[in-house]
Design a protein that fits this description.
globular, 13 helices, two-stranded antiparallel ribbon, eight-stranded parallel barrel, 335 residues, alpha/beta
């Protein structure tokens, strides 16, 4: 049975991004694999009155089961409405997005099951093949009012099924042609961010290529840009994990001040996944260390969910600049 995202209460990203580019903030795009992560995203969005994009990777869809995961996402919208009414706050716009879709068939499956936005990542293909695959997805998605994110350039690192040994920076001279050929609604670029928890080694100076970003902006002014691999790898979480029996090698992430600078530009969507994994894992390990007799999942997943909610609230307020923007998006007429 095919479902349209509007029947589930989701929105696509078109108005979100238009407002974000105009106002100089980025919409948070947080990945989820389970109930606690999803609850934390929604609760933080309501508390900060931020729009949110809940992201599902191919790996998450396989892990949680595509049917169950879809019902969870729909339930998150209903939860948002109920909590908003109980707390006397405004509802927030929520988009359900496929992260790093690697095939036309996967994108179609997600669109037909109620996703409001999909990413087709053809960046591992030659340029011509990437453009052709992306165009094919766009043609189908736009028939259903679904927005599409494409990608130019390759990010290093590993996260779920996405893996690359080194960066291939986006070539600014290619972006205008790519948009013309594909008709995508947003473009993920490679400027030095990377997937996973191991972005930069201790002692390295973490630096993303904002010069490439600004050159791209000059060539496609006002067009929505997306940054993947933008976790900052909170060192307190890494230290807690290692202190409580974990073994994470030294790594630092993308400085939050660089992300804030990017968000003030045409970067209107910033993906954050590893930070959430680290914060949850740190809290769970801390509880097991203090209470080795604990066996009730609610007693360790509940606090982990709360730690995640707190981190998302801070990201929305201090890094992405999305706090307080939901009412403006909700009040903007749809095209």
């Amino acid at each position: 049975m095919n479902l349209h995202y509007t029947s589930l209460g989701f929105v696509n990203t078109r108005v979100m991004f238009a407002v974000a580019v105009q106002r100089g903030f980025a919409v948070p795009a947080y990945n989820f694999n389970n109930m606690e992560q999803l609850q934390a995203i929604i609760l933080a969005g309501l508390e900060t009155q931020s729009p949110v994009i809940i992201q599902v990777s191919k790996g998450a869809r396989d892990y949680a089961d595509r049917t169950l995961l879809g019902h969870m996402a729909h339930g998150a919208v209903e939860m948002m409405k109920r909590v908003a009414e109980e707390k006397g706050v405004g509802e927030i716009p929520i988009a359900l997005h496929l992260d790093h879709g690697d095939s036309y068939d996967l994108c179609v499956s997600c669109i037909e099951s109620g996703f409001s936005s999909v990413m087709i990542d053809g960046s591992h293909h030659p340029y011509e093949d990437n453009a052709a695959l992306t165009r094919k997805v766009v043609d189908f998605a736009h028939l259903h009012g679904v927005t599409v994110e494409g990608e130019l350039g390759v990010l290093a690192g590993v996260e779920d099924a996405v893996s690359a040994e080194s960066h291939t920076y986006t070539r600014p001279e290619e972006v205008r042609d790519f948009l013309s050929r594909t008709g995508v609604d947003s473009l993920a670029i490679s400027i030095g961010t990377s997937h996973g928890a191991y972005k930069f080694k201790a002692g390295q100076t973490p630096l993303i290529r904002l010069d490439i970003l600004h050159e791209i902006e000059k060539r496609i002014p006002g067009f929505p840009i997306v940054l993947h691999g933008s976790s900052s790898i909170p060192q307190d979480a890494v230290e807690t994990i290692n202190r409580c029996g974990g073994k994470l090698t030294d790594s630092i992430g993308i400085p939050e001040e660089q992300l804030r600078e990017a968000a003030r530009s045409a970067v209107c969507k910033i993906n954050i996944d590893s930070d959430g994994r680290l914060v949850m894992t740190a809290k769970i390990r801390e509880i097991f260390s203090r209470k080795p007799e604990e066996f009730d999942p609610r007693k360790y997943l509940g606090p982990a969910r709360e730690a995640l909610r707190e981190m998302y609230c801070r990201k929305n307020r201090e890094v992405l600049g999305s706090a307080g923007r939901a009412p403006e998006i909700m009040g903007t007429p749809k095209e």
